[in-house]
Write a structure and sequence with these properties.
single chain, alpha/beta, five-stranded parallel sheet, 5 helices, 9 strands, about 30% strand, globular
Length: about 210
């Protein structure tokens, strides 16, 4: 999938967060949206994923040269952010089975294989509200990475992860981010090491 931004701008009341973003995100490449906390990179990521409206500008989505309607973008995008909610009354196994009724699993994967990749076999039947913040972040990453979608949008993906969790994320990015369009919103170099290109939100705040 190719995602093209044309003069994308976001305003809250009289304050412009960013203005005039023009960019083409190409399939099979990895990008990083860079900026300080509160700069608007998470907002731009949500706009790209169709989860939030821009104040001005247009976004087009094309797959093999064919336009995809914006209301259909959710079928092609997987998203992970620290603030996203999990169904914490479910245990891990229940939650993943529930999630993968809405998203297809990557070919040759099963829920048990995903749990093994997270190294959470011992907690597979614990309710998610019993998980630490780092364990919950692994779950959020897994439901994105192991969904069979051409686009991955990752907002500060290493939040709450220990060293082992960061290593896991970096391995997943190399292995399961390959051949997908990946956009990482970050101010932490560990999260976007080796990406094809970086885009600074600060370049769109001079107005």
């Amino acid at each position: 999938m190719t995602i093209s931004l044309n003069q994308i701008s976001k305003r809250y009341q009289s304050h412009w967060v960013f203005k005039g973003v023009n960019y083409d995100f190409e399939p099979g490449r990895q990008y990083a949206l860079l900026g300080a906390n509160g700069s608007g990179k998470s907002t731009l990521l949500r706009i790209i994923g169709g989860m939030q409206h821009a104040s001005k500008g247009q976004i087009s989505y094309t797959v093999n040269g064919q336009a995809l309607a914006p209301e259909k973008i959710y079928t092609s995008v997987s998203y992970c952010a620290p603030g996203m909610d999990l169904v914490e009354e479910m245990d891990l196994t229940e939650f993943l089975h529930f999630h993968f009724t809405f998203k297809r699993l990557l070919p040759s994967f099963s829920v048990s294989a995903v749990i093994e990749h997270m190294d959470l076999q011992a907690a597979a039947h614990k309710q998610l509200h019993e998980y630490s913040s780092g364990m919950k972040q692994r779950v959020k990453l897994a439901q994105a990475f192991f969904s069979d979608s051409p686009v991955l949008l990752l907002d500060e993906p290493c939040s709450n992860l220990d060293t082992k969790g960061v290593d896991m994320y970096q391995q997943w990015l190399q292995t399961y981010g390959k051949d997908r369009l990946v956009i990482v919103a970050s101010n932490d170099e560990r999260e976007y090491e080796g990406v094809s290109a970086t885009i600074s939100i600060e370049d769109y705040k001079r107005f």
